[in-house]
Predict the structure.
Amino acid sequence: MLVKYHVIVSLSGGVIIYLLTQSFLKAALFSSAGIFIDVDHFFDYIRNWGWKIVSLRDVMKTFYTQELKKIYIILHSYELFIVFGLLLWYLKVDWGWVVFLSLTIHLIMDHIYFFTHFRSNSPWFYFLSYRVSKGFKTEKFVKGKSRDF
Ligand SMILES: [Zn+2]
């Protein structure tokens, strides 16, 4: 998913959250969570090529063009979302549902994008257990290249 779509959805969602809750904190958390979850792409990039000054577009491009040998994107994992959601529910964190909702929307958007743009890819890609079972090796789950890059 192109970052600009996450920015648009996250900021728009933040406005809606503000209108519904009158809470600037919840709106800011919603907007931030939906955008900054992609920070794990930087981890994958740095792990492959070390520290470099590159654009966010270049980092995302490596993800979608099979240039990475391994893809971890640890934060993009349904299993972690379930654990995170249960933890927030257990702790009864007031703003937790906002962050959880934003992250879930982000992951679903990524999932739809990844599956529709790389039709030969596995629908299980966003499960951490699936990526672990494939040794995080890119060639095991990224079969094609996105036309967006
Ligand atoms: Zn993402």
In short: The chain has eight helices and no strands.
